[in-house]
Divalent metal cation transporter
Amino acid sequence: MITKLKALGPGLLFAGAAIGVSHLVQSTRAGADFGLGLIWALVLVTLFKYPFFQYGPRYAAATGESLLEGYKKLGKGVLIAYYILTLGTMFVIQMAVTIVTAGIASSLFIDFEPISFGSHAISSVQIWSIIILLICLLLLILGKYKLLDNLMKVIIITLSISTVVAVAMALFNNTTPLSLTQVLPENSLEITFLIAFMGWMPAPLDISIWHSLWAIEKKKDHNSFSTKKALFDFNMGYFSTIFLGIGFVLLGALVMYGSGETFSNSAGVFAGQLIDMYTTSLGNWAYIIIGLAAFTTMFSTTLTTLDASPRSMDRTTELLLKRPFKFGYLFWIVLLCIGTVCIFLFLASEMGLLIKIATILSFITAPFYAIVNYRLISSKHTPKQWHPSRNLHVLSWLGILFLIGFSVWYLTTL
């Protein structure tokens, strides 16, 4: 058991990156607004995204290259498209996950007094955002991949246990029968939420690239990290995101559905509402469990996202310019931190809008990543024995149709 746990790595990093805004914010909102009515969307989107996420570690372990090298082999234009998409979204995504983490920290630990600079004041959430980014930055610069790998095992285990306990307590205290009737959103607001929910459930598809980069790093530390082990590792991480996603929908449905509460778009207020509603329903003694589940969820996402975006941008830059950069990762991670701080100092009150934009953009660009990943894993650039099975081919075709279909449907409702 210990040996198998040590062998895990990139799959848990994937889970850490995935289980964040999609679960704590979007899944909880889905449960609060629709009860269990959107479980169908969670199941379908995780099923149809599965092959495209799996192709990341499959390609990396089979070839010793990340998906980025593969994209370049498919054509420089593919790599440039990825570069532009990532550069355009990474600051907003990092801001979104960091500010939710900061909101929870402010509610859970210390609510700082605002600090004034002339006419501008920095709130407690903004102070926490800077603290959390600095902690993550130091962890990644000093500890690098190995520390991230080991730390994520602790975080995911803590998160899983605290979430299971929270769901069990909510079920035990529940007196209202749960309806399993599934719902198809009808008005534009509900459809927008559905697309946002599916956009980051269990994660944006570009995380398959991050996963392939982590798999390469894992192979450097463990030569025995074979393709079979990489796929086992991925499956463990992927199915844990589905399990926890359903858990957070259940929590939202059990604790918030029908309560009449409306959620704030302010990070601090939202986090306070979230934790307060859970503790009101389950009892004050549950505060630390709910708080721990919420904070570890978001901290894991903040940490892994802060590592992955600079790692992928550094490698993409090297491939496009055909030269290595000694301090490329450091440059991108510092740039991401500075850009993120600038955004949340001036746009913190628009958390809901920014998250919605980022999640919708993730869903609309999903067909691009799905098609490119499928082309690459089925091409001559992947060893024949690691090409997808017939079932995976069929699931890939269905997945591409599903992602394109829902994107077109959403665009027609605008």
User: Anything to note?
Assistant: The CA atoms of residues 146 and 221 lie 8 Å apart.
